[in-house]
Every structure is written in C-alpha cells, then in structure tokens.
Amino acid sequence: MTEAAVGPVAPDPRPEVAPASMSARDLLSEAVAGIFSRPGRTVLTVLGTVLGIGALVATLGVAKTAGNQIVGRFDELAATSVVVTNEQGFFGGGGPRVRIPADAEERLMRLNGVTAAGSMGSVDVGGALVRSVPIPDPLAQTEFQMSIYAASPGLFDAVRATLRTGRWFDAGHSERGDRVAVLGPGAAQRLNIGRVDQQPVIFIGEDPFVVIGIIEGVLRQPSLLNGVVIPEGTARQLYDYESASTVQIDVQIGAASLIAEQAPIALNPNEPGLLRVQKPPEPEDLRRQVESDVNALFLVLGGVALLVGAIGIANVTLVSVLERVGEIGLRRALGAARRHIAAQFLVESTAMGLVGGVIGASLGVLVVVGISAARTWTPVLDPWVPLAAPLVGGVTGLLAGVYPALRAARLEPVEALRSG
Amino acid sequence: MIAPVVELRGVSRVFPAGDVSVTALVDADLVVEPGDYVAVVGPSGSGKSTMLNILGLLDRPTSGTYLLEGIDTSTLSEGQRAGLRSRRIGFVFQSFHLLSHRTVLENVLLATIYNRMPRSERLPAAEEALRRVGLGHRMDFLPTRLSGGERQRVAIARAIVTRPALLLADEPTGNLDSATGESVLAFFDELRNDGLTLIVVTHDDKVSQHAERQVRLRDGRIERAA
Ligand SMILES: Nc1ncnc2c1ncn2[C@@H]1O[C@H](COP(=O)(O)OP(=O)(O)O)[C@@H](O)[C@H]1O
Ligand SMILES: [Mg+2]
Description:
The complex is a heterodimer of chains A (about 425) and B (about 230).
Chain A: H1 3-6, H2 24-36, H3 39-73, H4 76-79, E1 81-85, H5 104-109, E2 114-122, E3 130-131, E4 143-144, E5 148-151, H6 155-158, E6 162-166, H7 171-176, E7 180-183, H8 185-190, E8 201-204, E9 207-217, E10 228-231, H9 232-239, E11 246-251, H10 256-267, E12 276-278, H11 283-323, H12 325-333, H13 338-375, H14 384-410, H15 413-419
Parallel strand pairs in A: 5-10, 7-9
Antiparallel strand pairs in A: 1-11, 1-12, 2-5, 2-11, 3-4, 3-8, 6-9, 7-10, 8-9
Helix pairs in contact in A: 2-13, 3-11, 3-13, 3-14, 11-13, 11-14, 12-15, 13-14
Chain B: E1 6-17, E2 20-32, E3 37-41, H1 48-55, E4 63-68, E5 71-72, H2 78-88, E6 89-92, H3 104-113, H4 119-132, H5 148-160, E7 166-170, H6 178-193, E8 197-202, H7 205-208, E9 213-218, E10 221-225
Helix pairs in contact in B: 3-4, 3-5, 4-5, 5-6
Bound molecules: adenosine-5'-diphosphate and magnesium ion.
C-alpha cells in the first residue's frame, strides 16, 4: 500500500468474512426448476416469443427465398445483354454522333466475357421503296416502305436470331460489298418471298439484292423482324453508311456489369463517356430490393410480435416474482444475496426467451420450407438467421426480466418472509 | 476463550411509520454462549420477531452493536451478511416456508446451494439431515402431502443441513397442534444435546419451558434475563 508511506490509513474494519456465493450451475438448475414448476404458464409465456421469433425467421426466409426465386426466374436473356448506342442523350440532340468503328465486333470479341457482338444501324436509302418484282405491278401493291438495316456478321448471334431458311451473311459478303440481303419475317411476308433456294432478288430502289436468308425470329432488337438487313460493307459502298448506331453484345451471365464498363472504352477509347450503355439490372440489386421490400413490412410485424412477447415475459416474470415473495424471502434467509435473486429471475426469463427463440426459429424455418414447397421454390435462408434467432429470443427474455428481477432483488427479506 | 455465539450491546430498532416511529426494540443486551438454548418470550407485538430478525442478519439494528461469533456484523457488507446466513445460521419459521413444487429432499438441498458446500457432500448431508428428523422415508414426497408436523421437520432438516452455529426459530409450533408441537420441541432438545445453539421465539410458556433460559420482552425491552 503506497498510502502507508504517506500517513496512517484506517484499517479495513471488515473482517475476512466470505460473501455469499452461488455456482452458475446451481443458478441454472434453480432457474430451470422455477420454469418447470409451472409448465402450463411457462408455455403460454413462451408463446409470445415463439410467435415473434417465428415471424422474424419466416419473414427473413420467405423474403430471401422469394428474392432468390425472382433472380432465378430473372430473364436470362436480359441478364446477358449489353447494348451500346451512340444516340445522343435527351438533351444532347443535335450534337454530332460518335462514330462506332467498323471493327466494333472484333474489338468487343476480344473482351473476356463477351460471347457474341454485332453492330447495326438504319441505312438511309433516300426514301427508296422495296419491291420483289422487277417491274411494279399497277394493280397490286408491290412496293413497300421498309426499314433497311446494315448489320455486322456477328449481329446474328448477338441478337440470338434463328433462320427460317437460307443463311446469314459473313465477313466476306461485307468486305466485297456483295449485294445480299437477309429478310425479317415481316418483310419476307410483305415481299411474298418464302424460299431462298432460287436466289430471289429484291430491289431497294433500283438496286437489286439477292435474298440469302429469311429470319425466323430474334430475341433482341425486334425491329429487325420487319426490316431488310444488308452487310455493313455493302451499305457503306452503296449508301454512304457512316456508322452503326447500336451495338448488341451478348455476354456470359455475371459479366454484364464488367462488359458494360469496358465496351465503351473498347469502342471509343478517347471519349467512352459519349456512348450510352444499357445493361441489365444487377441480380444482386434486384434481389436486395425484393428482400428489403418484403422485409421492411414483415420485420416490423415480427418486431411488434417480439415486443409483445417481451412484454408477455416481463409480465409473467413479474407475476411470478410477486407470487414467489415468500420463496424470495426464504432464499435470502438461506443466504442468497440480492444479486443471486436478481440473477435467478433473469436466467429464468432469459431461458424462457431462449426456448421461445429456438421453437420460434424452428417454426419459422418450417414456414419457409412449407411456403417454398407449396410454390415449388427452393427454400433459401441465411444460416445466421436460425442461429441468431434463439439469441434474439434470449436477449428479449433477458431485457424483459430486468425489471422483475430488480423488483425481486429489492425486496426486504423480513417483509418477504412475512408476506410469503 | 471462545466468543459468544451472539452478543447484543444496546441494540435498538426503530421503524419509521409515517409521522410517528415505532420503537420495536429498545437498548437490548444479550449474550448467548455456544450450546445455549434460549427462549424469547413475550406478548404479541413485544418485539420478539424484530430481535430474531436482527440476530438472523435479516435486519439491521438502528443503533447498538451485534457481534455474531465475535464478528461485528455492522461492518459487514450485504453479501458478507448473506454469506454468514448461509453458513452460520439456520432458520425455522412458523409457516415452514417450503417450496411446494419441490420434493422434500430438494427443499433441504436448497440450503446447500448458497452455502459453498461441495457438490458431492450435498446429497449425503441432506439425506442425513432428513433421517435425523425422522423423514428418511419421505424424501421424494412433495410437501403438500405431508402433515404440519412433518413439514416443520423438513424445515428443521433444511436449517441444520449446513451445520450452522445458531438455529433461530420464530414461533416454530405456532401452526401445530400441541402434540405435534411437543414432538418438534423434543427434537430441539435433541439438537441442543448435540451442542447446537438455539434461540426460539414463542409467546407460549409451555414452549419456553424447554429452553434453559428465558428472555422476556415487553414493549421492546428485555424485562428479565433469567
Ligand atoms: N416493518 C415494520 N414497520 C413498522 N412497524 C413494525 C415493523 N415490524 C414490526 N413493527 C412493529 O414493531 C413491534 C414489534 O413487532 P414484532 O417484533 O413483530 O413483535 P412480535 O414478534 O413480538 O409479535 C410491533 O408494534 C410491530 O407493529
Ligand atoms: Mg412475531
């Protein structure tokens, strides 16, 4: 003692008397005995926590499962599509468009994660009409206003097109400026062309094109279905076609974000920001959004249920304290300190909360599995949810027990023994 | 020299009761030596229970000094007083204070959990205490199935299972018919013969006859210590 050197210190008058003590094991078994002494009431008490925790777990599980389900059903097509356009923004009209390079396809195919890429753009043919017969028939409509598209060879795969007949053009057609065309099904019908084995010819204005294929369908860029598609090289030679306006990229699942970042740089390294990119919503974002929508509502309900459960435990524990005043007095006489009394009721209420949490978590998981089974969904639940739920229940019980435990500890033993 | 088990020096207890205050115990002096058997007698409201509660460390005197086995209890913390209760004092109450949801054996074991008694010794000690009070065959009964006399014997077993230095009993026969009460008192005689120090509160002169000394209280004052 350093004070000894400074001056006389009053000796501690307290003799060495060991304070009361109680082992954790005894505390626990006393609490358990207290709970089981009135099993019916304990069950009713725990019910509130069961409902609260059950609602929370079920909510989190159903939200997660539903969120996952949405992502699972989530349009694989959209998730693998990135579109780059050189359209000016809403307020940028009038400014010069950025040129999309002629080798856009090759540049994009070098990116990791791109499975197909192709560019397309409308061709200005100066209002020329399209017909499939050399001489217009004055009695029937044989000339049509049609959209003419220039496309790169890779566009076919990039839009996931299928052919009814014939073939798509290739790089050779484009380089040579071959006058070949592929018809969308709508255009083919209007031009009355059903087969290509006879190499039918159509005329755009006075320029003849050999039809080499007819599209059955496309999964992207549906405007192609009513149009006439010609190779880019041919469009450049004949119609001074300058630049594609749209680049369709087909990417691997999960690569969309990355490619959406890289594609403008690959296409226009100097000013990538001038290109506009459409990418699918992130599955994670989508899932989170769904989850948070579902969660927000039901978590509040679960929280309310839990609060009701906590109030239930607090209430019953308080009643139990008031009923057991005599027992509290007896325990004090037997040597329990105030903190032992408080601890006993706290452990009792915590145990009730814990039990409620375990049962509630189990029921919640069952609800998630049940709903999933009814909807043929795959149940998904974060592993921490059923693990944390009993803890939440225990903490609920602990908090609920604080006031009753303090009331119990504050009782004077003499009074308690008299009234018990 | 062995310190007295109990030594009261000028102990008073005043209860504040609204504007007036009730002085339940006035300037009490009392010495109880080891092995003594003392009866505290007096009419109802004379301060007997007040005195016993102070002796049992359930209550503190307003003034004066209480030495338990030579230890000045006024200097002790609440936890230390609880510790002394668990090890040195056994209580027997008029209304038994048994836990109705616990068996006879569990009721007796209850006294051992606040007592630091090694776990392995608890069960043998409880069984022995119950056999001593003649209830070896009732250990698994619930108290509700026992007669009043049997219940009080369970309470006595619970009071002695920790081998205390002092047994305090407040009207131990108050809830019993005279024959049953007599058997409980006979058992107290036995405990006294084994060397236990007993202080028994009663308003019944027949009960106090069992003690070797009577302390008579009237209006909170000790009238005569014979
Ligand atoms: N907590 C208390 N508050 C106020 N007065 C009390 C309290 N406890 C006891 N008294 C009073 O002290 C006196 C003695 O009471 P008590 O010791 O219980 O008497 P006895 O046990 O001899 O019947 C009585 O007048 C009683 O009313
Ligand atoms: Mg009394």
